[in-house]
Amino acid sequence: MQIQKPRGTYDLLPGEIELWQAFEKNVRRHFHVAHYTEIRTPIFEHTELFVRGVGETTDIVEKEMYNFVDRGNRSLTLRPEGTAGVVRAYVENKRYGKVDLDKLYYLGPMFRYERPQGGRTRQFYQYGCEVLGSNAPELDAEVVQLSYRILADFGLQHLQVELNSVGCSVCRPLHRDEMLALVLPRQEEFCSDCQRRMEKNPLRMFDCKHENCQRLLTELQVPSIAERLCAECAEHFATVQEHLTAMSVPYQLNGKLVRGLDYYTRTAWEVTTEGSSTLAGGGRYNGLIKELGGPDIPGIGFAGGMERVIQLAVEQQVYVPVSDSIDVYVAVADASASLPATELVAALRAEGIATERDFNGKSLKSQLKTADRLHAQWVLLLGEQEVAKGVVGMKSLASGEQMDVPADKVVATIINSLKKERASQ
């Protein structure tokens, strides 16, 4: 019986992977120019990390984590998101004593058990960043701008930033009390998830996807947290907006945006596009590092799902120049030239020249067809005659020009020819 891939996973095949690689290159370039460095954390962590770091009331912890018990009877979890692992690494390695401001980014697979659908899979890829060590609103604006610019510069259209502040330990409790006073008398009318959230984190009721719950919140005139910010949070939020405007980031305020994670404080945002779900989102989390055993250091970050980006890029017909060509094809006319061809291919590749050869004993005519299909710029011909003379036949597929070059000069000749061709482009 044929074994198939697990539900909610997929294969990335040649012809598809190139678009992913182009986006990954775009992500790395943006983080590099903004002076972020890469971090790689384990794909599985202790389950407690996500319970404490993501939040007990989140859908991720309650419904979506891949948990397993190892042979040492330890509960482990395939990482469902990136922030908790990065913060754990920051605390465990005491990076807070080594750098004033740690600007970190990551790319890699995450895992959540949810219903597979368009742009949503059980193994999915995220890119994101965490900046640890500053509470400056200017930093919030930088990270928001970065989350937007990565997508805009990839060519995606109609992008919009949805922006909110979810307050702090001063204004959140007051808002919580006011909110509970309004919703508790009608508790039974809300969904079971919202009833649990009333006990642990009522603010996340604004994140509920049930239309009835949203209707009830409107009917009861429950104020958004943005309407109840303390003076310090309000000032912080106003400064974030000023700097986003200065950077020409298109944003709109959304008082109901609270994101799906418990650890957010103050700035929270999502990057969306017309007719699409969220492409990226993030927020500030000033209490998370302390919650995970570190000092009381502020942090902020965002993450984006690569599947949705790629899907939208295809829908919007984003043009990404992807080169599938090679520089040189070494054509072998007969078996006597096989060893010299191997030496020549190795010498060319050692110089960074993209080179291919035949391994299936094809005829010379078929090899030339293959070279044409691979868009090779040059074909190097090796046969019994060339080996005996100590030369290599060199043919340009573009012009048809052909000449014999001494075998010990052919690599240098190819290098010079490619330099001239690239300089003229």
SSE blueprint and pairings:
Elements (H helix, E strand, L loop, with lengths): L16 H17 L3 E2 L5 E3 H8 L4 H6 L1 E4 L5 E4 L4 H10 L9 E10 L11 E10 L4 H16 L6 E7 L5 H13 L8 H9 L10 H9 L11 H16 L4 E3 L11 E9 L6 E5 L3 H4 L7 E7 H10 L12 E5 L5 H13 L4 E3 L6 H10 L4 E5 L1 H6 L1 E6 L5 E5 L3 H14 L2
Parallel strand pairs: 1-5, 7-8, 12-13, 12-14
Antiparallel strand pairs: 2-4, 3-4, 5-6, 6-11, 7-9, 9-10, 10-11, 14-15, 15-16
Could you characterize the architecture of this molecule?
With 425 residues, the chain is an alpha+beta fold. The chain has three domains: 17-170 and 248-315, 2-Layer Sandwich (BirA Bifunctional Protein, domain 2), CATH 3.30.930.10; 172-229, no CATH class; 328-423, Anticodon-binding domain (Rossmann fold), CATH 3.40.50. The chain is 38% helix and 21% strand. The protein has 15 helices and 16 strands. The chain has helices at residues 17-33, 47-54, 59-64, 83-92, 137-152, 171-183, 192-200, 211-219, 231-246, 288-291, 306-315, 338-350, 364-373, 384-389, 410-423, and strands at 37-38, 44-46, 66-69, 75-78, 102-111, 123-132, 159-165, 251-253, 265-273, 280-284, 299-305, 328-332, 355-357, 378-382, 391-396, 402-406. The strands form three sheets. An eight-stranded mixed β-sheet has the order 1-5-6-11-10-9-7-8, sandwiched between helices. It has a five-stranded mixed β-sheet with strand order 13-12-14-15-16, sandwiched between helices. A three-stranded antiparallel β-sheet has the order 2-4-3. α2 packs across α4 (83-92) and α5 runs parallel beside α9 (231-246). The mean pLDDT is 90.
